[in-house]
């Protein structure tokens, strides 16, 4: 296993990439200038790019006191209006991110070249993945920690010439709990009954089992008012989330609670999740069905909050 710190903050990169994308304006996401819940109906502010701009300023003002070393400092947005400020932060952030990612590409290429050179490529399972997705300006956000698409989606690229056709994309719903089960399957190791995941080896070969899951369950425990603790489900078209807004007994959280709120998105009509459709009458029946499925998923994974009386009260009050 080969781990890269990149593309994690501070999004550092080697000197050879300092001019990559220089004097180029990178394309902006359609909802880069989403400045808050007022227009989308979402229930929280989110980790906005301006927060990253504030970090750049702190590190520029006192580089020896800040926790990390950002490349390309000093960086300031003093005197800019809200649009120009966000645009400038976005361009720096995403260029640094991509420069950092370019160095990962280099080193993955070295690994693949070695496998080819040593005659190991055809008998080696190569997987590229990560622990979450990341916001690159969508909704005006950076960071992760949300059930929204950009954060929820995890990269997973696999190469195994003996079994897997090249150039194919799999649309089955796979979860990170399935990764270990897949690795064990390839290694010929029997999966312990205590593990919740399921191998998707047959899926990768083009033979998706008839009983494969149609819904993914998600939970994020770390609570802060700008991104409240929440759980939810996603299927091939719809997403339902419950932002319960409680710190519970988690560490490194805010003790300031937020009002519980539901969010619902039709990902076919609204792929960028710009409109919380929870109150739209046309989806009332679908939402009822998804709430039932959400309860079922929570029971499947033993995530029912039975030990938290405050959660039981919230669920009883807000579920219907």
| Mean pLDDT score | 96
Give the strand tally: 8
How many H/I helices?
8
Task: Evaluate the radius of gyration.
Answer: 22 Å
List keywords for this structure.
alpha+beta, Arylsulfatase, C-terminal domain, 2 domains, single chain, 4-stranded antiparallel β-sheet, two-stranded antiparallel ribbon, 30% helix, 320 residues
Quick overview of this protein structure:
The protein is of the alpha+beta class. Helix content is 30%, strand content 11%. The chain folds into two domains: 15-170, no CATH class; 216-318, Arylsulfatase, C-terminal domain (2-Layer Sandwich), CATH 3.30.1120.
Structure description:
The chain has 8 helices and 8 strands, in the order αααβββαβααββββαα. By secondary structure, the chain is of the alpha+beta class. The protein has 2 domains: 15-170, no CATH class; 216-318, Arylsulfatase, C-terminal domain (2-Layer Sandwich). A hairpin with a 5-residue loop joins strand 2 (135-136) and strand 3.
């Amino acid at each position: 296993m080969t781990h890269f710190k990149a593309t994690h903050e501070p999004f550092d990169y080697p000197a050879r990439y300092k001019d990559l994308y220089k004097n180029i304006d990178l394309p902006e996401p359609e909802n880069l200038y989403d400045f808050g819940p007022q227009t989308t109906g979402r229930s929280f502010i989110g980790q906005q790019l301006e927060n990253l701009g504030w970090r750049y300023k702190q590190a520029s003002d006192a580089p020896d006191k800040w926790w990390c070393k950002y490349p390309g400092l000093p960086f300031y947005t003093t005197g800019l209006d809200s649009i120009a400020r966000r645009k400038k932060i976005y361009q720096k952030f995403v260029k640094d991110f991509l420069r950092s990612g370019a160095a990962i590409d280099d080193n993955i290429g070295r690994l693949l070249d070695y496998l080819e050179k040593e005659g190991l490529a055809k008998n080696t399972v190569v997987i590229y993945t990560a622990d979450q997705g990341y916001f690159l300006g969508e909704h005006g956000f950076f960071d992760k920690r949300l059930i929204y698409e950009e954060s929820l989606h995890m990269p997973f690229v696999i190469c195994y010439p003996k079994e897997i056709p090249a150039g194919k994309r799999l649309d089955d719903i796979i979860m990170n709990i399935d990764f270990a089960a897949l690795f064990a399957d390839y290694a010929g190791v029997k999966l312990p009954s205590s593990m919740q995941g399921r191998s998707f080896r047959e899926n990768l070969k083009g033979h998706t089992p008839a009983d494969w899951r149609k819904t993914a369950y998600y939970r994020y425990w770390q609570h802060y008012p700008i991104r409240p603790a929440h759980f939810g489900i996603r299927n091939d078209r719809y997403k339902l989330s419950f932002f319960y807004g409680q710190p519970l007994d988690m560490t490194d959280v805010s003790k300031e609670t937020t009002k519980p709120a539901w969010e619902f998105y039709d990902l076919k009509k609204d792929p960028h999740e710009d409109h919380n459709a929870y109150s739209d009458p046309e989806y009332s029946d679908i939402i009822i069905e998804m709430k039932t499925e959400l309860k079922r998923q929570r029971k499947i994974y033993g995530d029912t909050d039975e030990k938290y009386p405050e959660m039981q009260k919230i669920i009883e009050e807000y579920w219907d």
